[in-house]
Specification:
This protein is of the alpha/beta class. The protein contains seven helices and seven strands, in the order E-E-H-H-E-H-E-H-E-H-E-H-E-H. The chain has a single domain, classed as Rossmann fold, CATH 3.40.50. Helix 5 links the parallel strand 5 and strand 6. This is Methylglyoxal synthase.
């Protein structure tokens, strides 16, 4: 598939997601990075968003709970180029009933080439980069060219 450039703005739209066994870890990481996160627009799935907002005072745009469709809501925003980065503290050792939704979210974030942290170490790397606070270009699929080619 052909690609085009997309510019991620200085003030990024960041989705925060965590499985139940990783919520405390994401909360700790969010508290540690509160000042940086406050400069961005934050989204989160239901339970995670309520926890983070209550404990940090950060303004977070809530989705519904992940198992109820929140993961899919975040994925839809990614495919609409409305999410610029994903921080998903995923628990690969614990089976969840909405595992297909989780895999779909990870796949769509990869397809749309957004920065994605799946654990504390990768989140630290992304948030210690100067790129988190400045505009930067990424390559994304040229979906319009794909549709036009299908018409021919």
């Amino acid at each position: 598939m052909q690609t085009i450039q997309r510019t991620l703005p200085e003030k990024k739209h960041i989705a925060l997601v965590a499985h139940d066994h990783r919520k405390d870890d994401l909360l700790s990481w969010t508290k540690q990075n509160r000042e940086k996160l406050a400069n961005h627009i934050l989204y989160a799935t239901g339970t995670t968003g309520h926890l983070l907002s209550k404990e940090t005072g950060l303004e977070i745009i809530p989705m519904i709970s992940g198992p109820m469709g929140g993961d899919q809501q975040i994925g839809a925003l990614i495919s609409e180029c409305k999410i610029d980065a994903l921080v998903f503290f995923w628990d690969p050792l614990n089976a969840v009933p909405h595992d297909p939704d989780v895999k779909a979210l990870l796949r769509i974030a990869s397809v749309w080439n957004i920065p994605m942290a799946l654990n504390r170490a990768s989140a630290d790397f992304i948030f210690s980069s100067a790129l988190i606070a400045q505009s930067t270009d990424i390559e994304i699929p040229d979906y319009q060219a794909y549709l036009n080619a299908r018409k021919e």
